[in-house]
Amino acid sequence: MKIKQATAYALHATMYMVRHMTQLPATVKTIARAESIPSKYLAKIFRQLAGAGLIRAASPRGKGYIFARDPEDISILEIFEAIEGGPLFDDCFMRHCQCGGTPENCGIYSAWREAMSKVTDHLAATNLVTAAWDHLPHRFDELPSNA
To answer: Within a 10 A sphere around the Cβ of 142, how many other Cβ atoms?
Structure first.
């Protein structure tokens, strides 16, 4: 499964917010500059995160964002699903074949589903605060060319 670039940006932006909790609200422009994320793209991502109830505008005039809930209560899975558009691993990656795609009649789908269940459980159990402090901060322009 390939995860959208927007999901990586959403994770980095929200982890930035966790690491700078005392400086919130933070504007899209501030976070975009700090994380080397295109500002207009991040604004779109933040609308999706706000729509999912994960962040919200700090004021009616939109002068920055804060968390809508305690970031310790926001799982990485919620961020993935907010940006990816729903459950990540619900269907068979081989859905285009003739088998009908059930774990009962396809050993590959059965193995896929078991593995993805573990991934989903791990993402659901990892909150944003833990992720932020367990991940080295960096800017996207500092990534190696093969990343």
So the answer is: 9
Cα 105 to chain centroid, rounded: 32
Return the CATH architecture of domain 5-137: Orthogonal Bundle (1.10)
Total-model pTM: 0.84
Provide the residue-wise pLDDT of the chain in tens; the chain has 147 residues: 678 999 999 999 999 999 999 999 999 999 999 999 999 999 999 999 999 999 999 988 768 999 999 999 999 999 999 999 877 776 676 666 766 667 777 888 888 888 888 999 999 999 999 999 887 766 666 554 444
Alpha helices in the chain (DSSP H): 5-19, 28-35, 39-51, 76-84, 107-125, 128-134
Nearest to 10 by CA among 30, 40, 37: 37
The structural domains of the chain, with segments of one domain joined by +, span 5-137
